[in-house]
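Researcher: I'm preparing a figure for a lab meeting and need a structural model of a single chain. I don't have an experimental structure, so a prediction will have to do for now. The sequence is pasted below. Please return the structure as tokens so I can convert it later.
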Amino acid sequence: MEIENKKLIRRNILFQSLDSGIFMMAMVFFHQMTIMVAFVKQLYDSPLIISLIPALLLIGFNLPGLVTTRLAERHVLRKKFITVFGFIQRLSILFMALSTFLLEPFGPNVTVAFVLFFYFSFSFFGGIGTPAWLDFSAKTIPVRYRARTNSLRAVIAGAGGIVLPLLINYFLTAFEFPQNYRLNFLSGFLVLSVSFVFFLFIKEAEASPAVRRKTFKQYLSSLVKILKRDKNFVRFLGTQAVLSVSECGAAFFTFYAIDLLKIGESTVVFYTFLLNLSFPIFGIILGFIGDKAGNLRVLQIGAFTTLAALVLIIFWPTHFIFYVIFILVGITVNARLNSFQVFITEFGDEKDRIRYSALSTTISATLFGLTPLAGGILLSSKLIDFNTLFIIGAVFAGLALFCFLFVVKDPRFSK
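Model: Understood. Here is the structure written out token by token.
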């Protein structure tokens, strides 16, 4: 029986890594910090519109979970629930690509509106299934293997992130606008479809604990009880809220580089390459640290690289330094993806795990979407300039690093 369990674990590690890794690989084609900024900026040169890109992505991925967790809990087999919304999610990118056909007959207003709508649809339907997916992922992979599974996922994503920019650069330079982005987005949809196939091969070995159906008021009451009971979890949420303010600056790195250095699309693609270069390199390192020393250590690294990137852009915004900045951003994203999802699953017991996930993704990650929007409003209204925005981000990144070091405890070692 133990041998069979090990075979099942190895099978799930493989297919979950392929599913998640290829999914992340596909997002290179419409990366929120580089490709989407370059596309929208050709139609609208507005910080406010640019700030909608990360806002829609992060809010869509994380806000629905607070409500849809109740739906997911009714499915003792989470996979069926995830499959439906995962399929709709991927279709959104197909429709986003087709929206580029609207430019010539209807103009930039309608085109941007539809592209951003389907971009939000992609994240929203993904967000509906996120709490169930986190619980499904934790259930199919034992805790001692989760960080290294995320590392394998990061290596797969990073390998694609290194190779695919060559194809993206070909699309963006060899074809006229908007056909170049249309081909680019369609390619992203095709790669997303491949990841979906691998997801179907993940085997859900056992049903989740049955949850008695509750009213929405009872459900909210159960969430409040978690917040009252688990003070360390509250400290973690507070630290995430502080760290989220740093996104008000980080979201505008590409926009700032285009304005300051007058870079072209090939340089934007190279930023995407550098951003993904860290995944295969640091994915293994961060996964090893997460398994051995705890995922809180990895979150500390992510906060430090966020602070370092903001300090560099404040004092040395040169061509070379921007290359360094996007490598640091890649490490930051890697650290958050590698540990944030795993870290959440280490709070609470199996029965409450999906609710911890819903609270964390809704409260913490939604703030990561709102702060870039606040930054876009401040920039568009001329209340602050880019440098001031980056300074604000650096201050809060430093505060978050302090909290991760001295305030938040690793639940794996403090239970």
